[in-house]
Amino acid sequence: MAAALGTRGATRRWFAALRGRSQSLAAMAFGFMSRVALQAEKMNHHPEWFNVYNKVSELIFVSIYSSEFCMKLYVDPISYWKDGYNLLDVVIIIIIFIPYSLRKIKGKHYPYLNIADGVQSLRILKLITYSRGIRTLITAMGQTAYTVASVLILFFVLMYIFAILGFCLFGLPEGGDMNNWGNLALAFFTLFSLATVDGWTDLQEQLDARNLILSRSFTIIFILLASFVFLSMFVGVMIIHTEDSIKKFERELMLERRMNLMEEKQVILKRQQEEVSKLMQTQKDLDHKSFTELVEKFKKTLRHTDPMVLDDFGTSLPFIDIYLSTLDNQDATIHKLQELYYEIVHVLSLMLEDLPQKKQSKSSEKVDEK
Amino acid sequence: MATYHPSGHMQLPRADAIRSRLIDTFSLIEHLQGLSQAVPRHTIREILDSSRQKKLMLGDQHQLVRFSIKPRHVERITHAQRLMSTLRVRCSERPPLSLWAGWVLERILSCHLFFFNFYFLLENFIIFLIFLNTVVLMVEIELLESANTQLEPLKLTLEVAAWFILLIFILEILLMWLSSFFLFWKNAWNVFDFVVTVLSLIPEIVVLAGVTSKPVWLQLLRICRVLRSLKLFARFHQVRVIILALVRALKSMTFLLMLLLIFFYIFAVAGVYFFENYTRSTRQDLEYHEFFSDLLNSIVTVFILFTLDHWYALLQDTWKVPEVSRTFSSIYVILWLLLGSIIFRNIIVAMMVTNFQNIRNELNEEMTHLEVQHKADIFKRQIIQRRQNLIPEAQRSSISKLDARLGVTFHETDAIQSHECAAVDKRAERKRRKDASQQGRPSDLTEASQQESKQSATRKGSKASKSRTKSLSKRRKSTSSFSSSSSSFSSCSSVSSSRYCDLIGKQKVSSIFKSMVVAFFVYCKSGFLVLHIFSFSPSRIVFHPCFLRQLDWETHVHQNLPGLMDMDQDERVVWPRDSLFRYFELLEKLQYNLEERKQLQEFAVRALMNFEDK
Questions:
Q1: Do B225 and B250 fall into the same domain?
Q2: Cα end-to-end span (Å), chain B
Q3: Mean pLDDT along residues B382-393
Q4: What is the DSSP track for B385-444?
Q5: Could you tell me if the ipTM is greater than 0.85?
Q6: Which residues of A touch B520 (CB under 8 A)?
Q7: What mean pLDDT comes out for the span B481-500?
Q8: CB-based contact, A239 to chain B, within 8 Å
Q9: How far apart (Å, rounded) are the C-alpha atoms in residues A239 and A235?
Q10: Is residue B10 included in any domain, yes or no?
Q11: Chain A neighbours among B 14-73 (CB < 8 Å)?
C-alpha cells in the first residue's frame, strides 16, 4: 500500500516535471499532426519510405499517448475524470483506435472507413492542452456556450415551423417543387440556404417558374427573420457575453496581482518590525533602554545643515496643511466643548447648592412619618 | 527629549507606522546594528564651487563620493539635445553632420499637416511630393495606351517628375540614416517607409540595367510606383492612430486566430477523406470535382465554405455521386457552417468591438487622469487659501490660544503669502517657497503639539498663557536658526536609503496618514453632535456657520484627498535633517496625545450621560 502510494507520488512528480517541458511535448504533438496531414497526401502515391515513415511514427505516437493515459489514470483514478482536458485525451485515444477496430470488425471494404480515417484529424486538438492562451480563450468561450446553444435552438424551432409550412405549400407532389421541398430534410436545407442568403435567387426562380402562390412573400419574410434578425441578434449576444467574460477575466487578474503585492508588502513590513523589536530586545537586555534612548546617540549626529529631499505624501506640504487645518478645527471644537462643560459644571454646582436644603426637609418629613 | 512615552500600553497602529517611517527614512536599523550608512552631506553645487571643493579635499583625501540621482520628470528629450551634450560633440571644432541632417529633416521635410488646405501643402513638402507622385502616376496610366505624338513632351515631363520624386525620397532616407542610423531601425514607420521605397526601386534598377525583354518587369514597375503612395500612411497622425489601434486589436486576437486555424486544418483534412469517393468518381458533370482532391485544394474549399459562397451547390454536387453518404457530407457541411462562419465570425466581430471599446476607455482614462491632476492642483491651492482664512476665524472663538497663534501666523502668513504669490509652476520659485514656508511649519507643529499635550494633561485654560510665552520664545529661537541655514539649499542630493523599503513604508504610511485625516473628521463630527445636545449658550448661533463650514471642509477634503495623494508627485520638499527627525517624533507623540484626549472626552461624555433626574 505504501509502495503503491510511493509510486503514485513519484509518477505525479514526474508528470509535474514533464508539464514544465511543454515545448518538447508540443513538438511531439506537432509531429503527430503533420503525420496526419501527410496521410492526406496518400492519394498521390508517395514513395515507399514515406509510408514506412508514416507507419513508424504513428506507432510511436500512439504508444506514447496510450501510455500517458494509463499512467495518469494510475496516479489519480477518481479525479482524473473531472478535468475536461483529460476527457479530451480519452476521446482522442478512442478516436485513434476506431479505424483499427472497424477494420477488424467490419472488414476492409466497409464503405464508411474513409469517415473513420477523416476523423483522425481531430488528433490535433491535443495541442490545445499545451497552450495556456488557448485554454483561457476556450474557458471564456465556454461561458458563452449556453447563450449560443439557446439561440441556435430558437433558430432551429423557427426553421422547423417554416419548413413544415414550406413543405405544405410548395412540396406537394402535384405542381410543387419536389427537388427542394420534397421532404423535411430537403426543406431544412433549402431554408438554411435561404437563411445564409447563398444562392437563394436560384431557389426562388424555381418556385417562380411553377407559379406557386405566396412563394415570394414566404421567402422574403423568412429571409428577413432568419438572416437579418436572428443572425444579427446572434452577433449582439456574442458581443455582450464576450465583453462580460473578458472584463471578469481582467478583474480577476488584477485582483490576483494586487493580492500578491499586498502580501509581499506585509511580509516586508513584518520583517522590519521584527528587526526593530529584536534590536530593542537586545538593547533592553543590556542596558534597559527605551527606543528614544537608543536613538539618542544617533540624534546627536544629525546636523541642521544636512538636507534631506523627500517626496512622499506624509512629509509633503499639502499634507501638513491639511493636517494642521483639521487639528485646528478639532481644537476649536474641543475648546467650545470645554466652555460648555464649564457651564454645565457651574449649573450643576448651583443645583447642588439648592439640593441639600430640599433633601434635609425631605428626610425630616420621612423621620416625622416614621 | 522628554520622557513622555507610553511604552506600549496603548497600541496605536498610526504611531507604529510613523515610527517605522522614521526608521526607514533614517535607516536606523543599519545604524543601530553598527553599519552606518553614508549620509549625504554635500550637494553638487558645493563640489563645483572651488572654495568649498578645496575645503572638502583638504578634509579627507580618501573620501568616497557617491552620487545619488533622482529621476526628474522632464519633457521629452530629443535626440539632437542628447547629441549636443555628449562630450565628443562638445569638444570637437565643427558640429557633426548628423546634427545638420536632423535640422534639415525637422525644419523642411517633416512638419505635420493639420489642415487639408492647398497652402499648407506647400509647407509640408514631402506630403506634397507624395500627392504629386500619385497624380503623376494616374496621368501616366491614362496616357499609356495613346499613341498621340503630341503628348510625347508631356510623357517625358511625367517621367522626369517621377524620377525626381523618387530621388527626393531616397535623399530623405539617406538624411535619416545620417542623423542616427540605429534609431532609424527602431521606429517601425521608418522601416515601413524604407521597405516601400526599396520595393519601388528594384524594378527601376532592373529596367535601367537593360533587362527590357520581359514585360513582367514593366508591370511590376508600375505596381511598385503605386506602392509609393503607401508612404502617406506614415505621415498623418490620425492614420497612425487608427493603424496602431488595429494592430493592437489584432494582437489580442492571436489565440482566436490560432484556434480558427486549427479548425481549418481539422476540416480540411477530414474533407479530403470524407469526399474521397467524390474525387475518385468518373462522372463528367461534376462542377466542383477538384475541390477536395488534395490538401491544398481542400483548404481553399474550406475557406470558400467559410465565406458561405455556393455551399448548397457544392453539397448538391457531391450528392450526385452515389457512393458519397449523404448524411456524413451534409453533417460535415452544416457543422462547418455553424461552427466556422456563424459562430467564429461573430466571435471575431465581438472581440473587435470589445477591443475598440477598451482602447477608447484607455484613452478616456488618460483624459480623466489629467483632469484629476488638475483638480488636485486646484485643491492644493484651496488648502493654502483656507489656512489663510481659517486663522482669523479661530481668532473669534478662542482668544487664549490665539495670541500665541497670532505671533506665529504673522510669520506664517508671510510665508503663506509668498507661498501663494509664487504659485507659478517654476521649480526654482517653488523651492524658494518651500524654504520660506519651511520656517513656519515645524515651529507651528512644535507649538501645536506642545499645546495638545498641555491641554490633555490639564483641563484649565490658565496654562495656555504659560505655553504661549514658552512657545513664543521657542518660536523666536527656532525661526532664527531656520532662517540662517535653510536659505542656502538646493535639492540636488537625495536620501540614500534603499528605495524598496522606502516605497513600501511610504505607501503604508501615506495610507495611514490618509486614514488619520479621515478619522479626525469623524471625531469632529462627534464633537459637533455632543455640542448640539448640550448646547445651552446662545452663542450657538455664532458657532453654526463655523460648523457648517467645517462640514463642507470635511466633505471637500474627503472628495479631493485621493486625487491629491495620487497626484504626480514631482514636487520635493527639502527638510533639514534634525527637523525631519523631530517632525517624526513629534507626530508620533501627537498621536498618543490625541488618543488620550479622545479617551478623556469619551469619559466626560459617559459621565454626563449617567445623569438622571432624581
A1: no
A2: 50
A3: 71
A4: HHHHHHHHHHHHH-HHHHHHHHHHHHHHHHHHHHHHHT-S--HHHHHHHHHHHHHHHHHH
A5: no
A6: 326-327, 330
A7: 32
A8: yes
A9: 6
A10: no
A11: 16, 19-21, 23-26, 28-29, 31-33, 39-41, 43, 70
